[in-house]
Amino acid sequence: MEMSQIRYVLSAAEHLNFTVAAEACNVSQPALTKGIKKLEHSLGAPLFHREGKRILVSDFGHTMMPHLRQIVQEAETAQELAQNFRLLNQAPLKLGVMSTIGHLRLARFLARFEKSFSGVELSVQETSPDTLRRDLADGKIDVAVMTQLDDVSSEQFRIMPLYQERYVVVIPPGHHLGALNQIGLRDISGEPYVDRLACELREMVMGVCESRGVELYAKFRSEREDWVQAMVLAGIGFAFMPEYSVTLPGLIQRPLGDPEVTRQISLFTMPGRPHTPALSAMMRAAHMFDWPG
Question: Boundaries of each HTH lysR-type domain copy (predicted)?
Fold first, then answer.
């Protein structure tokens, strides 16, 4: 059984005319007829009934057609995968990452991806969600990892959820709030505070605190996550942080309760924009990866 013979049969079944089927396959009619007869001989039963120039699919042919189509589809899929694999040699992939996302979890995924697809030349840029959205729309990056916010719709972006993470209260060793298993907003009212200016949920948290009469006294403000953690560790005050973004050794973290705040981290691509082989590989790898939470 040869792939060309299967294609001849499928074309004949579609057109019900050997001449037209031969033209569609770009071969002569005798070559097409000879190929079909060889396949019928191999299968041990006729696929068509001949009535002069007119042909009809036999009962056996109707039974075999779905299987023959599947063989062709699988062969085309295998060819596409092989082509994509060849194209992944020195294939560029530009990834944008929201600056408040913890590096450790994401680095584990990227390390596994690089090991599986070593031909992909991955570049990563770290910036704000607004910049990531613009760069994604303008084609400056291929894919973005950022928070899935309520003002982003599936019409604007194609979104693949990765993981959820809680917000925690980060404090230095020996802080009196470390005696609590969970810290509520009332517990931190009036406490010295380190303000994370780059936090995408900052305004929401500030609004909740204001509505509940919680006083936040910011002794230090920064857009940089490393400076925020360093100042907390130095004893300047506490900070609200996503749990997987806490990377500085020695920091103590407690779950934030009343209210509990979480965020959804997702992969964003542009709807309607064809995926390159490198991007398709990353999307499949992200889907299969064992993300935290």
Answer: 1-58
Helix, strand or coil for residue 280? helix
Distance of alpha carbon 113 from the chain centroid? 12
Q: How many CB atoms lie within 10 A of CB 147?
A: 19
Tell me the DSSP string of 49-99.
Answer: EEETTEEEE-HHHHHHHHHHHHHHHHHHHHHHHHHHHHHTTTEEEEEEEET
- Kindly report the pTM of this predicted structure: 0.65
Q: Which residue has tokens 């071969």?
A: 27
pLDDT tens, position by position, 84-105: 666 666 678 899 999 889 888 8
The Cα-based distances of 209 to 3, 65, 161, 190, 273 in angstroms read: 68, 66, 28, 11, 41
Which structure tokens are listed for 133? 């959205």
Strand pairing class (158-171; 262-269): antiparallel
Task: Render pLDDT for 227-252 as a digit per residue (tens, 0 to 9).
Answer: 999 999 999 999 999 999 998 999 99
14: enclosing H helix or E strand = helix 3-15
Q: Is the peptide bond before 259 cis (omega within 30 degrees of 0)?
A: yes
3-state class (DSSP) for residue 240: strand
